[in-house]
Write a structure and sequence with these properties.
The chain has two domains: 7-27 and 57-184, Rossmann fold, CATH 3.40.50.1980; 202-340, Rossmann fold. Helix content is 48%, strand content 15%. It is built from 16 helices and twelve strands. The chain has helices spanning 7-31, 36-62, 92-97, 107-110, 116-122, 133-138, 153-156, 172-182, 186-211, 237-243, 250-258, 271-274, 292-295, 298-301, 304-307, 324-340; strands spanning 65-70, 73-78, 84-86, 102-105, 125-126, 143-147, 162-165, 216-222, 225-229, 263-266, 278-281, 311-313. β8 and β9 (225-229) form a beta hairpin. α8 (172-182) packs antiparallel against α9 and α9 (186-211) packs parallel to α16 (324-340). The longest helix is centred in the first third of the chain and has 27 residues, at 36-62. The radius of gyration is 25 Å and the shape is globular. It starts with 6 loop residues before the first helix and ends with a helix.
Length: 342
């Protein structure tokens, strides 16, 4: 479900760099052959090259680096990164919320309805699902963001510093603070968290009164049955269970929340045991299976929530995210839905 960069693409990037380097060396060799006029020209070129190299070194020295503790250890990063490439998709919204400059992001993030307009306005480049080496190099990044375990990290490090983060290790508020620290925007991160808490504190008692003792489920049909989602895997779980403290059915609570995994996979036959009095649902974005296999099934149609018209449709792509701006958009829809649930 999480997109990772294949090592072959990074190796291709290195091959490209080697080819470019070889071309430069060939040109230098040609310039050193010939008569004394060419030799003089070479000395002049060398002087200019040394001057340019000195300028580049000065520019690099002027770029302040700081030590950041990533989930894979310490890494030296720019104090104020100006050209971030996010290869996680799910972290991009944090940088948008912090107004940190993202020059490249994966298609999943670029198509997220909650942040796509901001990314387009900033001129962020859509890297697709499988970024080409030419594209990564051309964007001249000063920082890569990847998930721990991504292949080819050592190759990426030859282009720019790489910060690894572990998916699901932190809740979104703690991750917001981490991203604020990484981008030297800690005050902005704290301000967002404070604003969010104020909104939740206002909505929570109203939602809890409206829902009462009823249970709430998050269900996604897929090829082999259904996914049951919990408190930390997007699709509104952070809000429903984390912020509003609403109850999940006992089976869902045990397998998707108490287990810490954030999700569980069930067969169609087990659906009634995991379905709550209120259901949020959408087709799973990970395959193209027709969701009607579930939605037209007698078991689904006979669920109390379905019969009572207490089923609310999530966006199958954008609502899988759980960054700050996505959560702001989800909060509006989820709170409105729950406040009208009867």
């Amino acid at each position: 479900m999480l997109k990772q960069i294949k090592s072959i693409w990074i190796i291709m990037a290195l091959i490209l760099l080697i080819v470019l380097s070889a071309c430069g060396q060939s040109a230098s060799t040609n310039s050193t052959t010939g008569d004394s006029t060419n030799a003089a020209a070479e000395r002049e070129n060398k002087t200019n090259s040394d001057s340019a190299s000195s300028t580049d070194s000065t520019a690099t020295a002027e770029e302040e680096l700081v030590t950041y503790q990533s989930d894979a250890g310490e890494v030296q990063v720019p104090k104020n990164p100006k050209r971030i490439i996010d290869l996680t998709s799910f972290s991009t919204g944090y940088f948008v919320a912090l107004d940190a400059p993202v020059v490249g992001a994966l298609s999943g993030a670029m198509n997220n309805k909650y942040i796509k307009d901001q990314l387009a306005a900033a001129g962020t480049i859509d890297l697709g699902d499988t970024p080409t080496p030419e594209k990564l190099i051309s964007l001249k990044p000063d920082l890569f963001i990847v998930y721990t375990g991504t292949e080819g990290i050592d190759k990426l490090e030859q282009i720019a510093p790489v910060v690894q983060i572990a998916y699901g290790k932190r809740n979104f508020k703690d991750l917001m603070l981490e991203m604020g620290k990484l981008t030297n925007r800690e005050d902005a991160a704290k301000a967002w968290n404070a604003k969010w808490e104020a909104i939740i504190n206002e909505l929570k008692p109203k939602v809890q009164e409206a829902v009462g003792d009823r249970t709430v489920s998050i269900l996604n049909p897929y090829a082999k049955g259904l996914f049951v989602f919990g408190h930390n895997y997007g699709r509104g779980g952070e809000i429903i269970y984390g912020e509003f403290d609403l109850k999940a059915p006992a089976k869902a609570q045990a397998e998707a929340i108490d287990s810490g995994t954030g999700w569980a996979s069930i067969s169609m036959e087990l659906l009634p045991e995991y379905a709550g009095d209120i259901i949020f649902t959408s087709p799973w974005s990970g395959d193209k299976t027709d969701p009607k296999i579930v939605y037209d099934n007698t078991l689904w149609k006979n669920l109390p929530a379905v019969k009572a018209n207490q089923v609310f449709q999530l966006d199958p792509t954008s609502d899988s995210y759980n960054d700050p701006l996505t959560l702001e958009g989800q909060l509006q829809f989820i709170s409105d839905s729950l406040l009208t649930a009867k």
